C-alpha cells in the first residue's frame, strides 16, 4: 500500500485535485498511502469533491483542501508554505479545447501565469529544505499530447516529437511545459513531465465527448458529431493514467518527459475515430437501456470545431520500458464501465451541471452550429 510512495514522501501537494484526473489521483493517494494530501484547487465550474468526500473519516483526516487560484501569486506561495510538500503534482489547468476557443484569456492566465506562480513558490520552498528532503523532492508537471499538434494517417507522438500546438488550450499547455523545463535547467528544480492522451472514466465533468454522448443518449436528444467524425484520438482510462502518474512522479528520471497512452483489446492501440467512439457508446446504450434503441439514430453531424486536430496517437514505449507501466483497462472494458457508471450517477451529473450553469449545449464556436442528419 504505502509502497506507492518512496520513503520520505509524507506530504503531497496536488494542484487541481478537485478536477477529473486530479480527483482520481487524490482518491488513490488517500486510499493506498498514508501521506497527507494537500489539494490546491480554485473550485471552478468543473471542480467537485463528492468522490473524495465519500472516502470516509480516516481519509478526511489526511485530506486538506486549499482553496487557492494559482493566478494569485501571494496565495499560491502561502499555500505551498502551508503544505510543506515532499512531492508536488501539478494538474490544475483550464482544459477544455472548446472553452479555450470562446475564451482564450482564462487559459493563458491559469495555465501559463498560474504555472509560473507555482514554479516560483515551489522553487522557494525547495531551496529552503534540508539537504535530506531536497534530495528526495520532486515537481511533477502533468500535460497533454495536444501540445504536439496533429498527426497524419501514420506515426505516433513520442517524447521527441516537436511541439506544434494548434488551439489556445494546447498553446497554453505547451507554454507551461516549457516553463517547467526552463526552471529545471536554469534553477535546478527537480522536475518530471508527462504528456497524456484523452482521459475518460467516472466522475468526468459532463462537457467532454464521452459523458456528453452518454447523457444525450439517455435523454433521447441529438448526439453531436463534429464534422465528418473521422478525427482520431487515443483513449486512456483515468485509473490507468493515475498509476502512470505515480510511477513517473516517484521513479521517473529527473528532467525527463514520458508520454502516456491507452490500449485496446488484446494490447492493440486505443486509437478510435470520434464516430467509432459515439457508435460504440450507442451500442452499449442499446444493451443497457433498450427502450431507447437504436441510439445510433440520434447521431447528428454538426459543424466542425475551428482548428480541429485530425489525429492523436501515443507511443508509450519509454514509460513502459523504463518504469514498467502498462494500462490495465482496454478501451472496450473502460468504456463499458464508464457508461454503466454514468447511468448509475445521473443525480450527480445533474447537480454538477446545474452548479456550473451548463445544460449540455455546444460550446467552442462563436455561432450556433447547423445540425444535419448523420447519413
Description:
The chain is of the alpha/beta class and 375 residues long. It folds into two domains: 224 residues, Rossmann fold (3-Layer(aba) Sandwich), CATH 3.40.50; 107 residues, UDP-galactose 4-epimerase, domain 1, CATH 3.90.25. It has 14 helices and 13 strands. Strands 3-2-1-4-5-6-10 form a seven-stranded parallel beta sheet, sandwiched between helices. The protein has a three-stranded mixed beta sheet with strand order 7-9-11. A three-stranded mixed beta sheet has the order 8-12-13. Strand 5, helix 8 and strand 6 form a beta-alpha-beta unit. Helix 4 crosses helix 6 and helix 6 packs parallel to helix 8. The protein is globular and about 65 Å long.
Write out key terms for the chains shown:
single chain, 375 residues, alpha/beta, UDP-galactose 4-epimerase, domain 1, 2 domains, three-stranded mixed β-sheet, 13 strands, 43% helix
